[in-house]
């Protein structure tokens, strides 16, 4: 029960910090075309695996979660955590929903503002840097090539994200991997 609510509050806090300043026009002129993957369109979908390290107070080693995701910019994101705690979360225009083992769903958060949250997550996973540059300092790796690049996103200090996220490292080739 506590794990579920802490996850919900973390997502809500992230949304609250990111959404008020969601950019209309963003400057990505500092990025080379090498560090720019092909963004996915609304008609495409993207699947992949993830590893997420959470650094918790009182623990020396990070808690590493691994799993799989499916992203459709027009339909939302399915985030399936496999280890250490199996969990499936669906994020779409209607909000954030958790799927239970008995195939029932529980709404964790909802509202119109979550459409922008999905757009932000879609931008990260889809390799579209424009919606991210207002909230993050975007730094491409110096040795990037078209088939092997890395971009580091560091939250800008004025948006409150730096208290929750130290950095996001995105790697890929033609697409985010």
TrEMBL record:
<dbReference type="InterPro" id="IPR029046">
    <property type="entry name" value="LolA/LolB/LppX"/>
</dbReference>
<keyword id="KW-0732">Signal</keyword>
<protein>
    <recommendedName>
        <fullName>Outer membrane lipoprotein carrier protein LolA</fullName>
    </recommendedName>
</protein>
<feature type="signal peptide">
    <location>
        <begin position="1"/>
        <end position="26"/>
    </location>
</feature>
